[in-house]
Write a structure and sequence with these properties.
Low-confidence stretches: none
Strand order of the largest sheet: 8-3-4-5-9
Number of strands: 13
Number of helices: 7
Radius of gyration: 20 Å
Largest sheet: 5 strands, antiparallel
CATH topology of the largest domain: Quinone Oxidoreductase, Chain A, domain 1
Strand content: 25-35%
Order of helices and strands: EEEHEEEHEEEHHEHEHEHE
Oligomer: single chain
Number of domains: 2
CATH class of the largest domain: Alpha Beta
CATH superfamily of the largest domain: Medium-chain alcohol dehydrogenases, catalytic domain
Mean pLDDT: 96
Amino acid sequence: MTKAYAAQSETSKLAPHAIERRELRADDVAIEITYCGVCHTDIHYAENDWGGTIYPVVPGHEIIGKVTAVGDNVKDFNVGDTVGVGCMVDSCRECSSCEKGLEQYCLNGMVPTYNGEDLHDKSITYGGYSEKIVVSDRFVVRVSEKLDPAKAAPLLCAGITTYSPLRHFGVQKGHKVGVIGMGGLGHMGVKFAKAMGAEVTIFTRSESKVSEAKKQGADHVIISTDDKQMEAAAETFDFLLDTVP
């Protein structure tokens, strides 16, 4: 049995709970979890805010850990590697989306890291608020040993959410990028855009976040409730990253 933290109902708090992890399949990687970030989605699922939560639910999809074992067909990971697991752990692997490496758009439905149904044995998936996890190697990523694993965990959700569009649309040195919102995603967006060489402007409603935005590397800060600032900024950006929705 594996120690975990689970919510038993939409009104209960997370509490210790024992779960069972599957035996290794040929393409599986067994991971001892060392860190797991807290995403607001975890709270929504624990409290059944969106409906459909299957209890008991073990949240957590920003997982960092060490490989403890690999299946017979696994070639890219070895015992001792530092790895990560994000918000999904399987898909049909056969549809047009999966064949393009876009499993998040799986036409038959991707399997989330928790509160999903395993495609093979129909068991319910449990997330990273636990000691260990077993995941197909296709949904495991290598994490650089140079990174602090505690700080790397949010890269598995908030990180990829903001990095992906910036990379997809080719943000580079000299581009002017506006990041809308200065929450968890906004922090990531600023850092990534700056690392890509862009001139970065944060849009925020709060004067109190100006110093924080500058601390994270923003070149400029626009208070979005100030009509004059907004009018002056119109049509001056190459790319806008909207983190508010």
